[in-house]
Amino acid sequence: MKRSINSTGRQRITHGMVSFQIHRSPAGLPISFSANLAGLSELKLPPTAKVSVEPFFGHSSMRFEFGTVGAISPPANTSLDEIDKGGEISFRVKVIDENGGHLGRLLAAGDRFTAVPPGGPENGLLPLLPVKPEWLEERIWDVSTADGNRPYLLINSRIPALATRLQEDPLLRGAILVEAFRKVLSAMLDSPDGDGLAWFSDWKIFLTEVLGVGFPEDLDPTDEDSAAREDFIGEALKVFANKFQFASHAIPIGEQEETTHD
Fold first, then answer.
1. What single DSSP character describes residue 152?
2. How do residues 50-88 score in pLDDT, each as one tens digit?
3. Element (H, E) at 242
4. Which helix (DSSP H) or strand (DSSP E) does residue 148 occupy?
């Protein structure tokens, strides 16, 4: 893998080198995390350099020491109890020279890493569509594809605990995620070759391998009224909703047996 080095000699830690998982309560709230930092060996850093991980959200952050590059050692306690609730937790990774000729020098760093839930995308859209609180005035939610690295599900930061409510309320989740999926599909069709979109290939894999829906490579991105475009989006949304059973999960358990399909 090609390494990125800036003018200070600091190396860049990329998404392919590290991964994180957040462990949650039954209500979906983050409790602790685990990290796989084995990919740091690709940077050929001094084995005695110290490694730290910093989870953060909003104005809150914590710092955990993970041993050294040559001997990664996760701390016994990775509790996230000091991180603000209400949105997606991200991670920073830093490698600092503690024994070389430049004591305290930052040798490598990476920022804005997001966690992947156990089981990958089959468990939902979190790895593909992270939740990001933002000021949306009177809108409840939106989707942003402005970041070439990944789209985000934006939720209104004015609404208390909306991210938690999204996890806990299947009716709210189904109503939002299906339409959010529509917005992402439209963005993909507007750039069918994925030019400038690092997330494009991951979403194609989700479509083909998880949903079993092929991406139409030959659609004209300038024809927004194309019947073929609408057919593809409609079919993908139907398969998506059926797979994750949004309506079934939204029906109270005591009433499920009473509902019928005419």
1. E
2. 999 999 987 899 999 999 999 999 999 999 999 987 667
3. helix 227-244
4. none
Tokens encoding 132: 């990001």
Judged by DSSP in three states, 143 sits in: strand
Bin 124: left if φ > 0, else alpha if -120 < ψ < 50, else beta: left
Tokens standing for residue 123:
């468990």
- Whether the CB-CB separation of 85 and 27 falls below 8 Å is answered with no
Contact yes or no for 178/137 (Cβ under 8 A):
no
State the pLDDT at residue 21.
Answer: 86
Report pLDDT for 198: 78
Mean pLDDT in residue range 223-249: 88
Using DSSP's 3-state secondary structure scheme, residue 103 falls into coil
- DSSP bridge partners of 114: 90
Quick check: pTM over 0.70?
Answer: no
CA distance linking residue 185 with residue 176, whole number of Å: 14
Contact 93, 37 (CB under 8 A): yes
Phi, psi of 227 (to 5 degrees): -65, -35
Residue that is written with structure tokens 């059926």 in the block: 242
| The pLDDT of residue 238 is above 90 | yes
**159 Cβ contact partners less than 8 Å away, ≥ 6 residues apart:** 140
